[in-house]
Amino acid sequence: MVSSLLKMVEECIPIEKLTLESKNSAITARVSRLWDSYRFHDEKDLLSTDMVLIDKQGSYIHASIKGSISHLFKKRIAEGSVYYIKNFNVVPNKAQYRVVGDNKLMIQLYPTTVVRSLSEDSLGIPTFAIPNHRFYLLDFDKVESRMGETYILTDVVGQVCCEGEVINKNCRGNSVPSLMLELHDLRAEKVRVTLWGESVDNYMRQKSMLENGIIVGVFTSTLVKRYMNNAVLSSTSATKIYLDLDIDEVIALKKKSSSSAREHIIQPLIIEQQEELD
Predict the structure, then answer these.
(1) How much is the pLDDT for 129?
(2) Which of the four, 25, 55, 213, 220, has the lowest number of CB atoms within 10 Å?
(3) pTM over 0.85
(4) Domain Replication protein A 70 kDa DNA-binding subunit B/D first OB fold spans what residues (predicted)?
(5) Fold match, 1-129 / 140-268
(6) Domain map of the chain by residue range?
(7) Distances in Å between the alpha carbon of 84 and those of 2, 7, 68, 93, 157?
(8) Please, what is the Cα angle at 92 between 15 and 68, to 5 degrees?
(9) What angle do CA 72, 77, 83 make, to 5 degrees?
(10) Angle at 15 between CA 12 and CA 19, to 5 degrees
């Protein structure tokens, strides 16, 4: 059994080699991000379960499972784990709200898609060589250029310098918590991001676990909107938040801020008017 699986893994192709003509292909990849997409924050209306997959070459791709068959994979896929995946469909990437904006393709899983968990201990496969994360980080001074763009979602990294209060907002009949943060980057450029729903809980939970006063985070898959004549980021159902991640961009920001005691203090964010959720 082990030898047969090893043989299958060895026959996998890199993500970057996938094409629209790829049939019966197999890949070995880590589930870097995993989330459920709902219609208008209604957890009774699941549109899809989505993932960002990364292989050992560092290539990444968006993978999606239709909501109607998502239950078939719920107990078989976990964020951070590595899998052998075969029998999927390669399709053009979305025309709107791309999570992996620099890949023209994405993949869709079927009920018959083979998904097998890979363990280095049991198979001798160097899964540690597969990156945990890959982001398409946008500089703060380029955020405004994405104003109104819907073809791609935006990833940023920044230090939290100001924080508002958690406020419940009414969104299409649902009460949704919101929280606005102000981030700054290495060049002291600033941008605000509004977190909604689960993103608020995710941020607050991670923040409570940090011992260091400096909070640097990666905020993925946000939309750029206009608020008070400024470009602001707004979380989506695909947004994932990673505080104190061990990547070069986070380390550089923490190093810069550690030289000043004032940089450790998160200031209250004064908001004249709350942003409405579209």
Answers:
(1) 84
(2) 213
(3) yes
(4) 24-116
(5) yes
(6) 1-129, 140-268
(7) 13, 11, 23, 22, 31
(8) 95
(9) 120
(10) 100
Domain 1-129 has CATH 3.40.50.920: no
Tell me if residue 61 falls in helix, strand or coil: strand
CB atoms within 10 A of CB 27: 23
Nearest to 143 by CA among 62, 234, 70: 234
One-letter amino acid for residue 143 of the chain: V
DSSP, collapsed to helix, strand or coil, labels residue 89 as strand
SS3 assignment, position 261: helix
65: Cα separation from own chain's centroid: 16
DSSP-derived secondary structure for 31-45: EEEEEEEEETTEEEE
Buried b (16+ CB within 10 A) or exposed e, 71-89: ebeeeebeeeebbbbbebe
CATH topology of domain 140-268: OB fold (Dihydrolipoamide Acetyltransferase, E2P) (2.40.50)
Low-confidence ranges of the chain (pLDDT < 70): 1-6, 40-43, 120-125, 212, 259-264, 272-278
pLDDT tens string 11-55: 899 999 999 999 889 999 999 999 998 876 566 789 999 999 999
In the 8-state DSSP scheme, what is residue 62? E
The pLDDT tens digits for 182-218 are 999 999 899 999 999 999 999 999 999 987 678 999 9
The torsion region of residue 41 among left (phi > 0), alpha (psi -120 to 50) and beta comes to left
